[in-house]
Amino acid sequence: MISRRQFSAAGLLAASGLATAARAQQVIRLTAVAGHPPVFLWVKYFDEVFIPEVDNALAASGGKTKVEWTKAWGGTLVKLGGESKGIVDGVADIGFVSTIFEAAKFPMQNVCYATPFTTDDIALVTRLVNEMQDSIPAMAQSWPKNGLVYLGGAALDGYNMWTNFPLHTVDDLKGKKIIAPGPAANWIKDTGAVAVAGNLNTYYEDIKSGVASGVVTFATGAWGAKVHEVAPYITKVTFGAPFAGGICVNKSRFDKFPPELQKALRDAGASYAQRFAQAQTEAAVTMMKRMQDAGAKLSELPAAERKRWADTLPPIGKIWAADLQAKGFPGDQVLQGYMAGLKKAGVQVARDWAVR
Questions:
Q1: pTM summary value
Q2: Domains, the chain, ordered by start
């Protein structure tokens, strides 16, 4: 039989043990940011997949480390295109860095934008870019050079055309103002269309107000931004699924994290990339159908016209590679590696950008 004194002593020891365990747990505060809102899947999965996987991994490893998250999506803390600077400057600790809007810092990661009319296979594009980052040192160094640790990437579903006019041939583009984000402006060069700058946050109002007559974008983004309401003609031209960026963490902070947190972040990043690719592929099909159900008119550009469009463009791949070479980057290696990877995977490209 346990005496009251023994019971009290046991209770004190248990309480002491709990207090010691509580004191032993390291709490790390991380602020996560994204320029886009969580209506877009790459941010939604950041919030609903990546972060929970980090938390679950830490708990499973013994709970010595816990993260307290502050989430700032939709440009509320760091604006679109300023994510890497915000993370490095300490405004945030981790975030989705959109390489398309930070091409000056991550030029090699934008190889997909110099090679249109390729593939809509999101998982394949993500894998090829990751493989090149592993095999091309200069490409891998893009992240630490800019004060970041790359955890996991994402490619968007394939780009197509949303317009407020029917698009049957390349000739229909003449004289039209088309929103083409960043390097995607090259995809309509020499077609007679005029490229207009913009991003997912501005597409709807720009087309509604007459600033442009259409946009080069992708299904999940178009649905989230309600582009089909102002540009109901959807033309599938299959520009391709481009690498869009990835989840990155401040390198200085990462280097000081305990090993279990470093591992949890890397593992969650790899899982995020895989699960996002699958979800984004499925979502693209669903969103396209929803837009059609809402009244949008979907058509596919004939194969001959698609090739004609590709052949109309200047040699944007070689121009892009030469520009990088002049700046000291292995542009030729990246371009040739990407095109070779596509061919090895069985992709029938409309034009081999590494050749002409």
A1: 0.87
A2: 15-155+243-284 (3.40.190.170), 159-241+289-316 (3.40.190.170)
